[in-house]
Hints:
The chain is an alpha/beta fold and 357 residues long. It contains 9 helices and 13 strands. The chain has 2 domains: 5-15 and 257-355, Aspartate Aminotransferase, domain 1 (Alpha-Beta Complex), CATH 3.90.1150; 17-255, Type I PLP-dependent aspartate aminotransferase-like (Major domain) (Aspartate Aminotransferase, domain 2, 3-Layer(aba) Sandwich), CATH 3.40.640.10. It has a 7-stranded mixed β-sheet. A two-stranded parallel sheet has the order 1-12.
Amino acid sequence: MGRVYNFSAGPSMLPEQVLKEASGEMLDYKGTGMSVMEMSHRSKAYISIIESVEARLRKLMSIPHNYKVLFLQGGAYMQFGMVPMNLMTTNKKADYVNTGGFSKKAITEAKLFGTVNVAASSEDDKFTYIPKDIAFSPDADYVHITSNNTIEGTRYVEFPKTGSVPLVADMSSNILSEEIDVTKFGLIYAGSQKNLGPAGVAIVIVRDNLLGKHPENTPSMLRYSTHAEKGSMFNTPPTYTIYLVGLVLKWLEGLGGVKAIEAVNRKKAQLLYDLIDRSDFYTNHVNKEDRSLMNVIFFTPSEEMDKKFISEAQKCDLYTLKGYRTVGGIRASIYNAMPVEAIEKLVEFMSRFERNK
Ligand SMILES: *Cc1c(COP(=O)(O)O)cnc(C)c1O
């Protein structure tokens, strides 16, 4: 069987070029006589890999010098706990914006460490929009948002202004998909398995003045400052995943960087939303201006028809289109690695399915 177009929300498709490059280097990485998997994380070869991954990310996202880049384990979920553990420490209060399932998980964890004020929520309308003009607490230790809501299909087009209160964002499902200004954030985190590579590492970008605010009894592994001081080498980092993230970043550079992929991502999302908006058969409930570029959610007129759509699509090599269990319907996750041709094929399939229903 050949490769399929995999619309999974994560882990998700990787660029073919990355898989080929990794397989070419599988047995012998650049004359070292071993795979990157087998290498000491303290070896010269590996140090040069992790340094180049960080350098590439800094360049692609224009990360200023006063921000640290950390490679951590435990995924975005670990960050749901690490953020409050390290930052909810001055007034022991933080503002959270509740825009869906992942925001809720972040809120649940933060409540273990202090007072969570849900400054705004779109739960009243099934998370189909992003709240705007929010009044934040001036004495919050930080404000937390989920920049792209993977399950609900919404995203922030403009980030809230929080004044001197640091803005923290879970960017797991849209990091590197469009240009952002890192300086607007105190901390950004993202699990790797959507836009960065395979599962196994979380990237944290943190302004250096937010380091060292943890309480004394915080375990070393759970302090940002530990990893910042040790260049993410306090213990063994997920070496092979980091290497693959590096290959993905190199691929992205080759395409022209974030600005170039943003144009492609807009085009891809537009193709789908245009068809949905033109059709009386497909619907999308998300507020138009808040629509995600990464996770496009739609429904046919019935649950039964959704099921039929998903199984027929699979016969055309269009895989993993089932919506999240709490939302239902159909979800096409179209991260950076999903080529335009795949969207064209999906759009064609959707039109045909509607005609032959
Ligand atoms: C996928 C996802 C997560 C969960 O990430 P893990 O790596 O599984 O911990 C959290 N937040 C968002 C926005 C996601 O898309």
